[in-house]
Amino acid sequence: MKTRDEAESSDEEDEEDPVLDNDLRWLLEEHIQWPALDLKKGCEWTTDLMDNYTIFFGHVLSNSFYPGLQRAIGVGSAFEGWSPREQDVVYKVLIPMTPPQGHSFHLELDSAEQKHVRNFRVRVQLECTCTKEQQAEGMLCFLHHPEEELKSNQDPSLLDTLCTDSYLDVQKTARWFYQLVRAIWPALPQSHNWHLKLLPSRRSCQFQVTNGRESFRIEILFGVRRGGSDIFVSSQPQYAGTPNTLWPETYAVAEAKFFQYISRTAPPDSLHLRCLQLFTRALLGIGFSTYTMKTIVMHLLNTVPMSQWSRRHFLRRLGDINVSLRSCLEEKHLNHFVIGNKRFPLHIRLPRDIASAEPPNLFHHLSQYLAAHSQAMNEYQDLQHRLASMLLNGH
């Protein structure tokens, strides 16, 4: 296989090759056993379910002092159009939360910030509601009305329900949300034909819906938007033992929008998702994360013209991904795709500090630990053998 630079400098990149085209058709359509996925159907079903939930969230929470819940945003591999496994696809969504009346959210970067992980706390602050409009609605001001009057005539503030030491608590929020999902489910049209099974999770809401023939697993994360951007702080777990008041910064919404942008500009026979799916499938049981592979493919999608991701370029693009992974391992360096990316699509909104930051090195641990780098190179060789086997044997 040629590297991308060699391929782009050659006229062969844009010339038809009937023999290669026939070989690829056999390889892609008959030889490789692609997972039988219908992600579009699952994404549409999940979106319809969450839209119905959102309507009821609005009714139930309209006059409460719990966070407002906006329309869910599809994130993760299924909504991006790929998945390494057909057996356990998870349809993941993020629900933006807004402060209830009389409250405000303030994001504070964790003072114990690690160089390659950004965690925030969501400080909840009470706001004065001593206006004629709000008094006319019968709302008492948490700041200026006597405590006894508040206890007797008004529900507790968010500080007294879902917070720990004035900060929004992830686990308390998850437990509250589980109760909402369970209570509202019987009112939804899906409940007539589907069975809901809640699954254990401390920092998200996970459940499975089945109707005897089909089954979908859904995970709901909660997040607070950073300004008007597509970057959130979310409830997703970052590492074992993450404190309840820490909300890791997530780029999942921006990445999902990037894949939507790519799908709009890609040729009808583009195989960029097949390339990503093939490599992430090969990673199962090997130490590299699927996010590593996804990051490498996103960088290539941002630099290689979309016209060169069509069916007849399949092997060349696989070669690009392979060469990029090896180069990053040898250099012990892989830039984060969103943070500090000067080529990031402008219509996807980033906070100024994200857009101008120095991209974190996702392979920083390889430069710190010699044993980790040695193991990664060995795992790269294992990956090569597995890819060769998949291409030759079709599975």
Task: Write a structural description.
The protein is of the alpha+beta class and 395 residues long. It has 14 helices and twelve strands. The strands form two sheets. Strands 1, 2, 3, 4, 5, 8, 9, 10, 11 and 12 form a ten-stranded mixed beta sheet that branches. It has a two-stranded antiparallel ribbon with strand order 6-7. Strand 8 (195-199) and strand 9 form a beta hairpin. The radius of gyration is 24 Å and the shape is globular. The model is unreliable at 1-17 (pLDDT under 50).
Topology:
Layout (H helix, E strand, L loop, with lengths): L3 H5 L9 H14 L7 H23 L6 E2 L3 E3 H5 L9 E9 L4 E7 L9 E8 L5 H5 L10 H7 L9 E2 L2 E2 L1 H15 L10 E5 L5 E6 L4 E11 L6 E3 L12 E4 L1 H14 L6 H12 L6 H12 L12 H18 L20 H4 L8 H5 L1 H24 L2
Parallel strand pairs: 3-10
Antiparallel strand pairs: 1-3, 2-3, 4-5, 5-12, 6-7, 8-9, 9-10, 10-11, 11-12
Biggest pleated sheet:
10 strands, mixed
* Residues in helix, %: 40-55%
Radius of gyration: 24 Å
Structural class: alpha+beta
Mean pLDDT: 87
What portion of residues belong to β-strands?
15-25%
Number of helices: 14
The beta-strand count equals 12
Summarize the model shown:
With 395 residues, the protein is an alpha+beta fold.
Keywords:
ten-stranded mixed beta sheet; 14 helices; 395 residues
